[in-house]
Design a protein that fits this description.
130 residues, mainly alpha, Helix Hairpins, 4 helices, extended
Length: 130
Amino acid sequence: MQATPPESEFKSKSGLKRIYSAFFYSIDGLKSAWQHEHAFRQELGLFVVGTIIALLLRISAFEKLVLIGVLVLVLIVELINSALEAVVDRISLERHPLSKNAKDFGSAAVLLTCLLAAATWVVVLFNRFY
């Protein structure tokens, strides 16, 4: 017979209280990212500037959504990368090849997302203005 794994005391149950709590955990995550993650602050700055530019451009609503959406995607992947780095550092600050791989994989995910965002902006703007 297989033993049931212990359940975390931090695991939420269900209902409206879970949704309410999850919202504030998310806000705490955004605040922490702002305070502790330089890359997140830089990318958030690009998001704000990019969003303003996208909203001012004479392009379709769908194109605006795509331009802003890829910038949101960069922020999402950066948050996941930061979470991964925090977990690796929590386990050990010792240099280890697996820790390096984990952090490098997260960094590569951010890079690919940034390249996707840049390519999206180039394609949308090129198709619109040339």
